[in-house]
Amino acid sequence: MGEDVSEQLELIKSAFKVIRTRRQKKACARCDVIVQAPAPARPIERGIAGPGLLARVMTAKYAEHTPLYRQSDIFARQGVALSGATMAGWVGLCSNLLTPLADALCDYVMSTGKVHVDDTPVDVLQPGNGKPKTGRLWVYVRDDRNAGSTLPPAVWFAYSPDRKCVHPQTHLAGFSGLLQADAYTSYNPLYEAGHIREVGCMAHARREIHDIHMRTPSPTTAEALQRIGELYASKPTSGDVRPGRENRCAKRDPDHCSSIWRAGSGKN
């Protein structure tokens, strides 16, 4: 008579396990030499955490935004006591292990002819006294999908303890091509060197006009925002990149940008 098939989605909870390795020692009856198989390799030398646990901690912290103290509480409910300080040490050591991957990611991002960069403040605790200070994260983006590229996009993050100009100059020392950024003066020496060409960021320009418009709205700022919107609308999407249309947009955009500038500055 056949059968009925039904499905139910269920969750299998992750579980901790202790992997115990026994290594026998043997001695030669004639020469008294003791031999023993080498211990299995560990991600962290003499550490108790296996690769799966380390991956779980790192993923929860950076991909799922779960602080270490919350992870400690989660693990405690499963009967495992792991302090935030212990896991913080693991995070630091994992960062060292992942350095080759970070270097490869940097090389991939910088190997293209166009990079977008922006920096953002991040609060960090100073070693020793534990007082907060402001560091910087420099975000370098490679994404040419809107230009029809099938190469995967990528983002490389670089940390610095301050916003001094030496940091972007160091990060971009081997880069040559178009750099899309805000008007931060630290990038100027890179443009003056000649191997990097400045490409303005319309998002930053719009943000300044938008902030002024929110504080003191006027016909001038409203017109500038409208024209920026029209500029975005004229660009083809990633699924509609046609050479003919792109050329028409490129020819029209310079005049359109000039009109936006005149509207934003009050010049006609």
Automatic annotation (TrEMBL):
Domain Transposase IS66 zinc-finger binding span(s) in chain numbering: 1-32
Pfam families cross-referenced by the UniProt entry: DDE_Tnp_IS66, zf-IS66
Stretches for region Disordered: 234-254
InterPro entries (UniProt xref): Transposase-related, Transposase_IS66_central, Znf_dom_IS66
Ranges for domain Transposase IS66 central: 46-239
Signal peptide: none
Segments of skewed composition (Basic and acidic residues): 242-254
Protein name, UniProt field: Transposase
Organism: Sodalis ligni
